[in-house]
Specification:
Strand content: 15-25%
Shape: flat
Largest sheet: 4 strands, antiparallel
Oligomer: single chain
Mean pLDDT: 77
Number of strands: 15
Low-confidence stretches: 140-145, 232-259
Length: 337
């Protein structure tokens, strides 16, 4: 997966828009969109684009160093630009040109030009060293390596999210993903409604794994829902300041396992597992945002927009209609009802 696809996948997994991230890191939204599309024509010069990529990756919780390597492979820095400044024939030509320059004004302009070029390349080299040093401090195990290995992973069920040292590799099955060789790495595999798989990983040679993801018990799901609800409650004042007070009461919690009848009017949402969900009215007011308890239901008026992080765990029942799932488990979906 290229750096642009990794940035986009990580942003969508966090349910963030381009505008959300641009406001946080103070980088233009069209630049962030171009990074995700790897459209280098609309981006500024290489040094600044590389710094933007590093800042964007850190904001999304990604390891910036592998993404910077992908960027460098796509747009390498021409080494001849620096080497040409040190060649004897260039220095000789510059000296000859200086002798031919008539008057103090010509000599002064030539000196300013050479100083400007040297300063530009000096700053570029300094920024590159600073970027590499900062990334190495954040993740010492991800230092540059000249050798790569191939990593493959299958899971039951398929469709789980795979991370190595917090780098998103994609959904299972992952086949032959190139990674820098190293003695130790951290593997994390996640799937909604199942226990996350956490393990150390030796990447000194090609690796291929096949794992089973265990279903969470009702007690574990309830504990996760309580913890998530606590985090949502802690951030509620910020949501209340940015959105009008909901005009629809957030009620209708159903008991676990009970069948929820179709609502008399409006739309009913039912959660079969943990799934972050945001419900907005037609005018943009946030009617609900959080991770509801497993098995709970809530009623809303017609004309809402629902965004959820695991669409297969959310069932929608419109007035007088049949229940329907919003999508697949682990899929981020936005739909209007």
């Amino acid at each position: 997966m290229s750096f642009g696809n990794e940035l986009k996948a990580a942003r969508e997994a966090l349910s963030l828009s381009i505008q959300d991230v641009a406001g946080r890191i103070k980088i233009r939204g069209d630049y962030l969109r171009a990074l995700e599309a790897e459209d280098l024509k609309v981006l500024p010069e290489r040094t600044f684009t590389r710094a933007y990529l590093q800042t964007y990756a850190r904001e999304l919780g990604l390891d910036a160093l592998p993404l910077l390597r992908d960027f460098d492979r796509l747009l390498p820095q021409p080494p001849e630009q620096v080497n040409n400044l040190r060649r004897p024939d260039v220095q000789k030509n510059a000296a000859s040109s200086g002798r031919r320059t008539s008057g103090l004004l010509g000599g002064l302009l030539g000196g300013l030009l050479l100083l400007g070029v040297a300063g530009y390349f000096g700053y570029s080299a300094y920024l590159s060293r600073s970027t590499l040093s900062a990334s190495a401090q954040q993740n010492p195990m991800a230092l540059p390596s000249t050798r790569q290995v191939k990593f493959s992973l299958s899971s039951r069920p398929a469709g789980a999210r795979v991370y190595v040292d917090n780098r998103y590799l994609g959904l299972t099955p992952v086949q032959g993903f190139p990674l820098d060789a190293r003695a130790q790495a951290a593997l994390r595999v996640e799937y909604g409604g199942r226990q996350s798989y956490l393990s150390g990983l030796n990447l000194e040679a090609d690796r291929s794994l096949n794992i089973d993801l265990t279903l969470l018990t009702e007690a574990q799901l309830a504990a996760q829902a309580q913890a998530a609800q606590g985090r949502t409650t802690a951030s509620a004042p910020e949501v209340a300041q940015s959105a009008p007070t909901p005009s629809v009461p957030q009620s209708g919690t159903a008991t676990s396992g009970a069948a929820a009848p179709a609502p008399a009017s409006g739309v009913r949402l039912t959660w079969a597992g943990q799934s972050w969900t945001r419900v907005t009215a037609a005018g943009g007011a946030v009617l609900y945002q959080g991770i509801p308890a497993v098995g709970s239901s809530r009623d809303f008026p017609a004309g809402i927009t629902v965004r959820t992080g695991s669409a297969g765990l959310v069932t929608v029942t419109p007035s007088g209609g049949q229940p329907q799932k919003m999508g697949a488990v682990g899929q981020v979906v936005t739909r209007a009802f």
